[in-house]
Amino acid sequence: MDRLTSQEERITFEHLADRRGYSPRRCRDKRYKDVSHTLKAKGKDDKPIILRFDLKKQKNKKQNQDWIWIEFKNSKGEQGWIHGDAHFIAFERSLDFIVVNRKDLLSLVNSGKVRYDLPRVTLAKKAKYRVYSRKGTGEETTQINFKDLKNLESFQLWEKRDASSD
């Protein structure tokens, strides 16, 4: 795997969105559930379009980046971010950001890919395509492989290396 330079490691979602012609802002609007950023774009007749994003930052650089966590219910047992108000989800990885439409992602996990018919698992390492719950929480999550997202029509890969020459 290619090593990133320190400059490439500092490239942010906001920087890449700006390079693509969007005007990114952190979202502080409490009306929207699970929205971390808004991106303003030009629509028809130059009318602005506001796209809502939920950025999933990379938490553990040593974690296998081929697997992505999906949250159905949060630790309180409330609806998770997959059911939130974001139009798009952006998953940060070391070399890139994976961007997909939230509704497309929800359809993918509900298409039979995730095995709801099997008993829940209680070990994170067994969460691949299975519903995982931590003991003592209402949480329900699963893991799906990054390769599954490539077949979504909305799939985009925003590479950090492309912006490192700025």
Key features of this structure:
single chain; 166 residues; alpha+beta; two-stranded antiparallel sheet; 4 helices; globular
How would you explain this protein's 3D organization?
The chain has 166 residues and is of the alpha+beta class. It has one domain (6-163). Helices cover 16% and strands 28% of the residues. It contains four helices and eight strands; from the N terminus they run ααββββββαβαβ. The chain has helices spanning 6-9, 13-19, 102-113, 146-149; strands at residues 23-26, 37-42, 48-56, 67-73, 88-92, 96-101, 140-145, 156-159. The protein has a six-stranded mixed sheet with strand order 1-2-3-5-6-8. A two-stranded antiparallel sheet has the order 4-7. The longest helix is centred in the middle third of the chain and has 12 residues, at 102-113. The relative contact order is 0.20.
